[in-house]
Inverse folding.
């Protein structure tokens, strides 16, 4: 009786260890190379391809799992960020911290954009996007952010600008250390009501 109880438990523990090893290896491999193959990931994880496919039926499914984990971990880190006070200042702080999270994810997002559908990408980003949406709505209510454009458009603009900055860095046209300030300046200019003075993102991000 004891033997039959221990064996399934041991197998489940082994399976969990294999899954975590595969996800860790995928995160590293795909961050270095968005085109990293299943064979490369399996080798880095120290498992065979059969074992990997036993947990993830396809490369897309693996990418989905590793990106979902990375976004969730980054989002949890943002939970402690103070977004109170003046909305533009809070937005600049959120952009700075979100950009650091995006840098840590690296080419994972690029791999996901090729492997996953736009609908799935939106689903994965739903919780982080809701944080931005709440901040934008508060800024609109306080008259700091424009109300003549849909909130969803403003939230999506931030997402697109951040990924555009990553592409500019990869092309050598933007210095990584300058990216957060450039993103904030671009987004704050977009969010500011027509005719109002655009706040200085660089100054606020250092305050």
């Amino acid at each position: 009786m004891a033997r039959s109880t221990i064996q399934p438990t041991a197998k489940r523990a082994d399976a969990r260890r294999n899954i975590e090893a595969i996800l860790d290896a995928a995160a590293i491999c795909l961050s270095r190379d968005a085109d990293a193959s299943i064979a490369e990931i399996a080798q880095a994880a120290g498992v065979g391809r059969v074992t990997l496919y036993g947990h993830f039926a396809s490369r897309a499914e693996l990418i989905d799992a590793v990106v979902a984990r990375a976004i969730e971990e980054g989002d949890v880190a943002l939970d402690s960020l103070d977004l109170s006070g003046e909305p533009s200042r809070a937005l600049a702080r959120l952009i700075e911290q979100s950009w650091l999270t995006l840098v840590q994810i690296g080419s994972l997002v690029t791999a996901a954009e090729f492997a996953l559908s736009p609908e799935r990408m939106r689903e994965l980003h739903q919780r982080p996007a809701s944080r931005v949406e709440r901040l934008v709505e508060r800024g609109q209510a306080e008259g700091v952010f424009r109300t003549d454009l849909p909130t969803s458009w403003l939230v999506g603009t931030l997402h697109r600008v951040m990924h555009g900055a990553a592409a500019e860095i990869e092309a050598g046209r933007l210095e990584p250390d300058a990216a957060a300030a450039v993103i904030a300046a671009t987004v704050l200019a977009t969010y500011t009501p027509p005719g109002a003075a655009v706040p200085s993102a660089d100054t606020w991000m250092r305050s």
